[in-house]
Amino acid sequence: MRLHEITLRNFRGVVDQTIHFADGVTIVEGPNEVGKSSIPEALHVLRTYKHTSTHRDVRALQPVGRDVGPEVSVRLSTGSHELTYRKQWLKEASAELHVSGEQPRQLTGDEAHQAYERILAETVDLDLLAALEVQQGESLAQANLAELRSLQNALDDEGTTDDGDDVLLQRIDEEYLRYFTPKGRRLGFRDQARTDVAELEAQVADLEGRSERMDQLTAQYERQVQAQHDAEQRLEHARKEFDAQRDRQAELHELERALDEATRAAEDARRRLERAREERAARRQAVEDLTRREDELRNQRAALDDARQRHDALRQASEAARGQRRGAGRAQRGAHDDPPVAAGGAHPARRRDASPPRAHARRRPRGRRRTPGRAGPAGRDHRR
Question: What is the mean pLDDT of residues 146-157?
Fold first, then answer.
């Protein structure tokens, strides 16, 4: 089996990281707590736990303080198969397996998990693979390789094919003689060896305690790293929100300035409207005054025309009266100067009777001269 690529998303302290493996040996190096140990752990849980599992080992993969599902995707080749296997646990759990090669197919869910296990069982020694998996915190424990049947068979095959290899047996003998005599008696430094073993066991216990403490510090550091990452994201979001608020504040200031200008323009327009209304009211009053004066002038003109007509009528009547008086006077004078001769000799008597009217017609009262336009009530109305 050969790994080509692995991708971790929301896996402990790893947000999103893809690693490409070279054709030869790939060494992953970096500072502590950057996710190096997460790579073999991801391969282990990918092979061991279904996507629907809620085992504590699976729950431990979820980033601290984030409600997301851990995700692992791997691309590898084993036997004649090219596999791309992806799993996501806890949130939106799913499993997908793409198989290419002699029998290409695509599977999901439990079928994908079972097909992946079956292909590995056909092409890989699963016991040896499990024995070679080393998890953080278990590095001091020795892998149990002696019980692996495949390894025993490989050693047996190797021993039967090389008859001239006595180096291994020679080293075994040398190691045996360090503790025993050729006759099997134990050597005297056995007690010292026991002491050394006790000291080494104490050192191992101390190292195991330190390792456990390191694991706790590692988990605490991962939580702090995740918290820092979340805080940085919140800070970035707050910065963006601050920038947006600042832009909105600038827009608000611009709107307030535009509102002030609009308010001043509205106030100016209101004042102009009031002046226009006052001017319109003044024009309307002027029009009303002009209309009233035109009506008065029209009435005065009508009264003047009527007065002129009465004046003309009175003048005509006065002239007619003067004409009548002049005619009557002429008639009286003619009758006085040339009286007609009556038949039968009665002419002298008529002259005596007719004389008094002529004298009466010529008398006029003193101090009363008639003038045109003062002939009577009609004249008085015309004067008024």
Answer: 63
